[in-house]
Design brief:
alpha+beta, Ribosomal Protein S5, domain 2, Alpha-Beta Plaits, 2 domains, four-stranded antiparallel beta sheet, 11 strands, 33% helix, globular
């Protein structure tokens, strides 16, 4: 028997770096929402754990967050069976889209279902504490505001009612370097939560900021150029996601979004177009 599920990517609607902690982590505020970029999982029972990735350049050892999540579940909850994970990888790595964290979250949810352990989302989030700050968002499966280290999620309906065009420029950017070069601001002029709840998307360009964007663009000029092109194509808001390297634009009209999509596609970029009000399918299905 094979079980199938999709692991969706995210983008950040604004990102404030509020404080640099003695631990080296950062206190942040950000808006999380989903895009239709997803990896596909096929899982079946086996005599031992195996991870197979469609992209041979991605390690499948203990560095991989799927493997880390599997080992954490096995260590703290226990497994009656073992499983083979076949993953078709579509979300670019190192792109600021949370692909690895999304994969880890789905691994926890799949094991919880197939093992019949009945753990709550909060239980699964506890298991993920040491693996990645974005994982709780993907376990909950709802858009919302992330605070603290990004692990404290307040579910809110902030999924844009606009087309989202996301562009991967073809290279990774360094998360550690972006945070190192960023200057924390404990008292930003605008709260991301208030902007997303109270202002229309055409005002976000003036009020909603990703604090990591400027230091990353200083290193990777192309990211800034793509952002400017999205605005030129008619996006009402454009920004880098997370620590990069992906950039997205919000489009209120479908034909404007499709024109931008086709233009970037012709240039050879890896891209995704997400429908307005998109909701990810969180189901785990049996494949007959």
């Amino acid at each position: 028997m094979i079980w199938i599920a999709n692991s969706n990517a995210k983008i950040n609607l604004g990102l404030h770096i509020l404080d640099r902690l003695p631990t080296g982590y950062h206190r942040i505020e950000t808006g999380f929402c989903f895009i239709e970029w997803s990896d596909r999982f096929e899982v079946k029972r086996s005599e031992q754990f195996q991870l197979r990735m469609s992209d041979g350049k991605i390690p499948v050892d203990e560095q991989n967050l799927i493997t880390k999540a599997y080992r954490a579940f096995e260590r703290y909850i226990g497994l009656r069976n073992h499983y083979v994970f076949n993953v078709t990888k579509n979300i670019p790595a190192g792109a600021g889209l949370g692909g690895g964290s999304s994969n880890a979250a789905l691994t926890f949810r799949i094991l919880n279902k197939l093992e019949g352990t009945g753990l709550s989302n909060e239980d699964l989030i506890d298991l993920s504490r040491d693996l990645g700050a974005d994982i709780p968002f993907f376990i909950k499966g709802e858009p919302g505001i992330g605070t603290g280290l990004g692990q404290e999620i307040e579910p809110l309906n902030i999924q844009p009612g606009a087309w989202i065009l996301t562009i991967y420029p073809g290279f990774e950017s360094s998360t550690a370097e972006a945070y190192q070069k960023c200057r924390p601001n404990p008292e930003p002029e605008f709260s991301i939560k208030n902007v997303l709840l109270e202002e229309e998307p055409d005002q976000w360009q003036y009020l909603l900021q990703n604090d990591l964007e400027a230091p990353v663009i200083a290193t990777y000029e192309m990211i800034g150029n793509i952002k400017d092109q999205l605005i030129d194509f008619g996006a009402v808001y454009a920004s880098m996601s997370g620590s990069g390297s992906s950039i997205f634009g919000l489009f209120e009209q479908d034909f404007v979004a499709i024109n931008a999509y086709e233009s970037f596609h012709k240039l050879g970029f890896t891209i995704n177009l997400t429908r307005p009000g998109f909701k990810p399918d969180m189901g785990i299905y049996r494949k007959d």
